[in-house]
């Protein structure tokens, strides 16, 4: 709302004379906020939260604010939108249980399109917006084209705000304008819901800095309920009834969530961001502490319904060059026919990769805003596993020489340059190849209790199997080392009452492919070698050297 203007004031580094606040000042800040959000280039936003909704709403406003917002205001709006929206996406996904619907209640929604974005992205989300009568009347005209109905009165408000299921409450720079009593009632209502997550972004009124003085000078009469600092807000949340909360200033939140976009005015932006705090509060500790964590990218097999979004992500990954994007648009049609994987963040597809019939990796791309989070490595790991399962001796790929970061990633994963058997045409590329026929020594030791909890390797039902002699499998589990990396192997389905194997038997272990680098388990194990000096421990405190635990496998596998 008013924070974009406050960001501009931060450049003055001095208080300004107090001005008379017009009666419609709060309503006016809604248009100012929407103007800054609408002017943020969509390609600069984090890909998973980008939406044309704000610009579309701005175009429908009958009265426009002349000029373009200052660069600092645009960068502030970029961070604000990315942080709030990424937290909101993660919150609704965490709140949902089974096939239940999730309600989003926006307190002081203003004129922006966050609720419309959420309702468009998640078909199981219902949104309720609350604001001043003047703002609501203006918003009703803007969104009437996108909703089935608009309430003309508040007759059903009690029903809409009842404890009807999982609820996300958004208060994005809104309660700071309310009276202390009104803000207290809103937070107590949010805390009273059984399964809810409360997200609030608010400026602080701490006047210990020049920015704080400028903020108070420019908006002191408006910001009636802005907390002094993060500690003051934490106390307020506890008194409102929230059992758990996480509070970070907006600069720390953007770094935690990977929302980074450097610029020439970084110092001024950081100063402005640190005057705002982001709050996640809930009765559920996992919600309160887990929303503002490092983004978790998940890779899965591509489905038919993913085709359009996967193509869009691949094209976005190619950057802003028109010629390259045009070429990428032609190339990505293979995603409709080839086996492929997609990388997702908060249900948004942010990367893709495919494998053709010759073992060549095709259409590998991750959107710029989600790079350096391991998405590309996970995609490569999945596609190499698929190539190994299909019997390919090697994986190949082509990459433009200008993509130095991609070339470095491939080199780290074992790819080396080869002579390209085909002419490159108008787009020169580097031809890379990786040998998948791993030859390694299998080193095995009995299962160690603390290793059994590692989730990265599970030996369950799949097609990759190899045999181990009984001498290397003295208990129901063992630790295997391939190329220096250790993995836990379990024997299944023998019960704990049969902890050892009969003499002369050979055990088949099933490897689950999803665990990296499961595909690299050699087809032909050249040798077996037990590791000397292995110390075995268990929950009962037993410790032995070069032998099974004193209480056998039952303690290790319980």
From TrEMBL:
<dbReference type="InterPro" id="IPR016181">
    <property type="entry name" value="Acyl_CoA_acyltransferase"/>
</dbReference>
<keyword id="KW-0949">S-adenosyl-L-methionine</keyword>
<dbReference type="InterPro" id="IPR000182">
    <property type="entry name" value="GNAT_dom"/>
</dbReference>
<feature type="domain" description="N-acetyltransferase">
    <location>
        <begin position="297"/>
        <end position="437"/>
    </location>
</feature>
<keyword id="KW-0489">Methyltransferase</keyword>
<comment type="similarity">
    <text>Belongs to the methyltransferase superfamily. LCMT family.</text>
</comment>
<dbReference type="GO" id="GO:0032259">
    <property type="term" value="P:methylation"/>
</dbReference>
<dbReference type="InterPro" id="IPR016651">
    <property type="entry name" value="LCMT1"/>
</dbReference>
<dbReference type="Pfam" id="PF04072">
    <property type="entry name" value="LCM"/>
</dbReference>
<dbReference type="InterPro" id="IPR029063">
    <property type="entry name" value="SAM-dependent_MTases_sf"/>
</dbReference>
<dbReference type="Pfam" id="PF00583">
    <property type="entry name" value="Acetyltransf_1"/>
</dbReference>
<dbReference type="GO" id="GO:0016747">
    <property type="term" value="F:acyltransferase activity, transferring groups other than amino-acyl groups"/>
</dbReference>
<dbReference type="GO" id="GO:0018423">
    <property type="term" value="F:protein C-terminal leucine carboxyl O-methyltransferase activity"/>
</dbReference>
<dbReference type="InterPro" id="IPR007213">
    <property type="entry name" value="Ppm1/Ppm2/Tcmp"/>
</dbReference>
<keyword id="KW-0808">Transferase</keyword>
<protein>
    <recommendedName>
        <fullName>[phosphatase 2A protein]-leucine-carboxy methyltransferase</fullName>
        <ecNumber>2.1.1.233</ecNumber>
    </recommendedName>
</protein>
């Amino acid at each position: 709302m008013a924070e974009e203007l406050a960001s501009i004031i931060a450049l003055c580094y001095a208080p300004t004379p107090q001005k008379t606040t017009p009666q419609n000042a709060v309503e006016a800040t809604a248009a100012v906020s929407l103007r800054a959000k609408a002017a943020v280039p969509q390609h600069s936003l984090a890909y998973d939260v980008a939406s044309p909704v704000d610009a579309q709403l701005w175009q429908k406003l009958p009265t426009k604010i002349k000029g373009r917002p200052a660069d600092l205001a645009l960068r502030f709006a970029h961070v604000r939108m990315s942080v709030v929206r990424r937290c909101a996406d993660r919150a609704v996904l965490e709140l949902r249980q089974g096939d239940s619907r999730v309600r989003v209640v926006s307190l002081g929604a203003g004129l922006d399109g966050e609720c419309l974005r959420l309702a468009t992205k998640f078909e199981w989300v219902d949104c309720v917006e609350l604001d001043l009568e003047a703002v609501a009347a203006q918003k009703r005209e803007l969104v009437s084209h996108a909703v089935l109905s608009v309430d003309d009165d508040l007759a059903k408000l009690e029903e809409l705000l009842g404890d009807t299921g999982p609820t996300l409450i958004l208060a994005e720079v809104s309660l700071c304008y309310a009276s202390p009593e009104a803000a207290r009632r809103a937070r107590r209502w949010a805390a009273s819901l059984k399964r809810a997550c409360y997200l609030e972004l608010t400026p602080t009124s701490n006047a210990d800095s020049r920015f704080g003085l400028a903020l108070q000078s420019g908006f002191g009469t408006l910001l009636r309920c802005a907390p002094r600092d993060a500690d003051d807000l934490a106390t307020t949340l506890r008194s409102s009834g929230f059992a758990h909360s996480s509070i970070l200033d907006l600069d720390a939140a953007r770094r935690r969530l990977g929302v980074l976009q450097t610029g020439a005015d970084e110092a001024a932006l950081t100063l402005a961001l640190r005057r705002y705090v982001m709050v996640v509060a809930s009765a559920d500790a996992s919600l309160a502490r887990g929303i503002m964590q490092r983004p978790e990218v998940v890779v899965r097999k591509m489905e038919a319904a993913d085709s359009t979004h996967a193509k869009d992500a691949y094209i976005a990954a190619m950057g802003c060059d028109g010629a390259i994007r045009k070429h990428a648009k032609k190339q990505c049609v293979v995603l409709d026919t080839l086996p492929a994987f997609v990388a997702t963040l908060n249900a948004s597809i942010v990367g893709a990769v495919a494998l053709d019939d010759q073992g060549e990796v095709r259409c590998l791309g991750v959107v710029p805003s989600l790079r350096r989070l391991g998405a590309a490595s996970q995609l490569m790991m999945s596609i190499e596993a698929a190539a190994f399962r299909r019997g390919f001796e090697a994986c190949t790929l082509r990459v433009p020489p200008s993509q130095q970061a991609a070339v470095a990633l491939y080199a780290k994963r074992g790819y080396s340059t080869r002579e390209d058997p085909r002419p490159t045409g108008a787009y020169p590329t580097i031809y890379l190849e990786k040998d998948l026929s791993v030859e390694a020594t299998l080193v095995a030791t009995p299962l160690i209790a603390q290793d059994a909890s590692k989730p990265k390797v599970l030996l369950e039902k799949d097609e990759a199997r190899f045999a181990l002699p009984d001498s290397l499998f003295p208990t129901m589990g063992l630790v295997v080392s391939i190329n220096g990396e250790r993995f836990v192997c379990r024997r299944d389905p023998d019960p704990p009452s049969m902890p050892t194997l009969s003499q002369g038997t050979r055990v088949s272990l099933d490897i689950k492919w999803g665990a990296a680098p499961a595909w690299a388990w050699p087809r032909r194990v050249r040798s077996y070698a037990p590791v000397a000096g292995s110390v075995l421990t268990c929950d009962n405190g037993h410790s032995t050297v070069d032998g099974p635990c004193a209480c056998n496998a039952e303690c290790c596998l319980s």
